Amino acid sequence: MLPKLICLRILLALMPFVLIFWLSACRANVDDLQALTAEKKSLLCNMAQLKARSDSLWSAMSLYLDEHLPPDMVASERSNMIAVKNATLIATFKAFSKLDSNIQAKVLAAGNFDNSIAADMKSVMDSLHGVELEINMALEQLENRDEKASFQIKNNLRELVKNPCD
């Protein structure tokens, strides 16, 4: 009986430490989720900026082509070339090889710049995928311990997706 009593006293003496450890682990999980949410927001904003850069690049290229393509081009080919937002596809038009070398160089330079934007987008998407996996794992762990905090974090994430950049 005496060893059981000693074990019980030791267990009771350690209980506050266990409780503090458990609560700090929950808090760390919420803090981790808040940090991951901030990281996700940053990545979503980076992606939006990269998309805007690509859109701006091709809008400028469309204006340039509209102003510099020969007026005697077949109208449908001209309008299609202006509308395409991909240098490789623009270069496949029959008329491309007949264009002024400055126009060709400008299209190809835009394509190279767009390729670098696309590489940056892929890198951001890979990072975003990793962050989302971490968020989902942390949410799952938090939901098992603190359903209310998990619900709040999920709501914050939904708001973030609605309007990622201020």
What is the overall silhouette?
rod-shaped
The biggest beta sheet is recorded as: none
What's the mean pLDDT score?
84
Note poorly predicted spans.
17-28
Element string (H = helix, E = strand): HHHHH
State the total count of DSSP E strands: 0
Q: What class, by secondary structure content?
A: mainly alpha
Quaternary state of this entry equals: single chain
Number of helical elements? 5
Radius of gyration of CA atoms, rounded to a whole number:
28 Å
Approximately how much helix is present in the residues?
Answer: over 70%
Strand content: under 5%
Q: N-to-C terminal Cα separation, in Å?
A: 66 Å
What does this structure look like?
The protein is built from five helices and no strands. The chain is mostly helical and 166 residues long. α1 packs antiparallel against α4.
Topology:
Blueprint: H1 2-68, H2 75-83, H3 87-91, H4 101-145, H5 147-162
Structure characteristics:
mainly alpha; 5 helices; 166 residues
What's the short version?
The chain has 166 residues and is an all-alpha fold. The protein is built from 5 helices and no strands. Helix 1 packs antiparallel against helix 2, helix 1 runs antiparallel to helix 4 and helix 1 runs parallel beside helix 5.
